[in-house]
């Protein structure tokens, strides 16, 4: 256990040196980074997921539209909700898929900002440590990927969570897939510590907005639907600590589901490339604010008191928009 902790500390230290990011120490065990906001007190973000297909399945077109919207909203950073490289992650740090699916695709000037990435289940099917390796940062300075970490800004805290190890079937019934569980086993200990650290960090947080980012769905009318392991273990932590937004990918769609009993909103941005047409499950129309089974991405703007969400399709049309303020949420 001590050896594993030392390896993690060395890896994080190398990432910090290469990235030039500001690491802030906290009582919680999750690494914590700082990102500045705009002088007017706002924060703008683009969110995309399930994208890495060497430009195929309209990945290039989604990237081009992100760049156009980025020119308008001037994102401070970009979030990837995982499944960064299909079908089976990276084979290593020298895998050309890194350039062919990332560096050579997201070329617009407005996309040359810091990317904060989480891992998806497809990423675990390759050399999972490659995506975490600071060598990739040397190849493309906008790349940053850790398993779980905290990003602090003056208006919001973002809690990036490694959701793949929660899902039982990847361990009990992997079919023909091989998952790289280095750094995760023993699984029970890994998940216990992750939930404990997340709960501690959320309780310590005094941020105006608390946003949790993971790959897997908590609420979804898409093909994958509800991830029951997350519903059982992660959702109570979010509800107890008054998390405002849960942002995910995994289902290849764009989606907004509201909670019937809390302000928590579930936002799916998994339309970065291949979409699943016609895969929709029955859902309460009072809760399902958007379900779009096509490609696209999400934009988010936050201030101390307000949040604005917009979902865009591949041609830049706004599919859905939503706003919320502390004290009330719009419908």
Automatic annotation (TrEMBL):
Ranges for domain Calcineurin-like phosphoesterase:
44-253
Q: What is its EC number?
A: 3.1.3.2
Q: Where in the cell is it found?
A: Secreted
List the Pfam families. Answer: Metallophos
Tell me the GO molecular function terms: acid phosphatase activity; metal ion binding
Keywords, A to Z? Glycoprotein, Hydrolase, Iron, Membrane, Metal-binding, Secreted, Signal, Transmembrane, Transmembrane helix, Zinc
One cellular-component annotation, GO = extracellular region
- Cofactor(s) listed: Fe cation
Task: Read off the InterPro entries from this record.
Answer: Acid_PPase (IPR024927), Calcineurin-like_PHP (IPR004843), Metallo-depent_PP-like (IPR029052), Metallophosphoesterase_PAP (IPR051558)
Q: What is its main location?
A: secreted
Q: Which CDD domains does the entry link to?
A: MPP_ACP5 (cd07378)
Cofactor annotation remark:
Binds 2 iron ions per subunit.
The residues that hold Fe cation 2 are 83, 121, 215, 250
The residues that hold Fe cation 1 are 50, 83, 86, 252
Give the reaction(s) catalysed: a phosphate monoester + H2O = an alcohol + phosphate
Family stated for the protein in its record? Belongs to the metallophosphoesterase superfamily. Purple acid phosphatase family.
What's the protein called, per UniProt?
Purple acid phosphatase
- Highest lineage ranks of the organism? Eukaryota, Viridiplantae, Streptophyta, Embryophyta, Tracheophyta
């Amino acid at each position: 256990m001590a050896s594993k902790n030392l390896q993690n500390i060395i890896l994080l230290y190398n990432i910090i040196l290469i990235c030039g990011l500001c690491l802030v120490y906290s009582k919680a065990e999750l690494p914590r980074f700082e990102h500045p906001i705009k002088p007017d007190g706002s924060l703008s973000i683009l969110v995309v997921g399930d994208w890495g297909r060497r430009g195929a399945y309209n990945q290039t077109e989604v990237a081009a539209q992100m760049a156009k919207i980025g020119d308008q909203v001037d994102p401070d950073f970009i979030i990837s909700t995982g499944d960064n490289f299909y079908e089976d992650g990276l084979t290593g740090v020298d895998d050309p898929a890194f350039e062919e699916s990332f560096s050579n695709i997201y070329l617009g000037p407005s996309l040359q900002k810091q990317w904060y990435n989480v891992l998806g289940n497809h990423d675990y099917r390759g050399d999972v440590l490659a995506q975490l390796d600071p060598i990739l940062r040397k190849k493309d300075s906008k790349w940053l990927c850790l398993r779980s970490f905290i990003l602090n800004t003056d208006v919001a805290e973002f809690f990036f969570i490694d959701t793949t190890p929660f899902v039982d079937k990847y361990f009990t019934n992997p079919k023909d897939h091989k998952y790289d569980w280095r750094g995760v086993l023993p699984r029970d200990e890994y998940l216990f510590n992750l939930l404990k650290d997340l709960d501690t960090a959320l309780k310590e947080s005094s941020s105006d907005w608390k946003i949790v980012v993971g790959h897997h769905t908590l609420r979804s009318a898409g093909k994958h639907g509800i991830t029951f392991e997350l519903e059982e273990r992660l959702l109570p932590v979010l509800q107890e600590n008054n998390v405002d937004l849960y942002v995910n990918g995994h289902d290849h769609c764009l989606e907004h589901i509201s909670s019937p009993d809390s302000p928590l909103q579930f936002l799916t941005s998994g339309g970065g490339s291949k979409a699943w047409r016609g895969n929709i499950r029955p859902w309460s129309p009072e809760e399902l604010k958007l379900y779009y089974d096509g490609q696209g991405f999400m934009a988010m703007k936050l201030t101390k008191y307000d949040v604005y969400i917009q979902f865009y399709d591949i041609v830049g049309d706004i599919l859905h928009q939503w706003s919320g303020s502390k004290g009330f949420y719009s419908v």
